[in-house]
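Key result, reporting period 2: structure in, sequence out.
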């Protein structure tokens, strides 16, 4: 019988994180306590090309887009929905900065800041169903590159 080849495959499960270890903050450092979930993504758009004598298609980096989505439990009309409605009235889009935080088991923290976020795509003004908690989905474009301020570690 051969020994296990990859002894680091599972890492150290004591350091695995779940959503209870995360939070989302506004630019003033105030936790968005009603955030049920958030997700930040980056999508890359490359340019494909081929060269004479080479049958393989290649790609080179062109653009990328960072988006942030949040689902919020509706408890009160907070500053974000007020900013959004006011922006529609005055045709002046709101711009927010968010900081996502994930605490490690050992006190370390992964902190990523998303700056110059504008509403993008569909946002729930009211999304109400009988027998369900009222939630509001938000979608943002992140107009500046994210900044990774601190890292999770196992040390």
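The corresponding designed sequence is given below.
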């Amino acid at each position: 019988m051969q020994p296990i080849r990859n002894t680091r495959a599972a890492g150290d499960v004591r350091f695995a994180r779940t959503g209870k270890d995360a939070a989302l903050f506004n630019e003033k450092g105030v936790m968005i306590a009603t955030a049920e979930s958030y997700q930040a993504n980056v999508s890359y758009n490359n340019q494909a090309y081929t060269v004479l004598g080479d049958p393989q298609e290649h790609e080179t980096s062109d653009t990328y887009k960072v988006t942030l989505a949040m689902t919020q439990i509706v408890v009160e009309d907070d500053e974000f929905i007020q900013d959004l409605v006011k922006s529609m009235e005055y045709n002046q889009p709101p711009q927010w900065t968010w900081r996502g935080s994930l605490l490690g088991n050992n006190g370390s923290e992964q902190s990523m800041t998303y700056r110059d976020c504008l509403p993008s795509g569909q946002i729930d003004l009211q999304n109400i169903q009988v027998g369900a908690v009222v939630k509001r989905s938000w979608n943002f474009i992140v107009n500046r590159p994210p900044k990774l301020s601190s890292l999770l570690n196992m040390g």
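The chain is about 10% helix and 45% strand. The chain has a mean pLDDT of 92. This case is discussed further under Risks and Mitigation.
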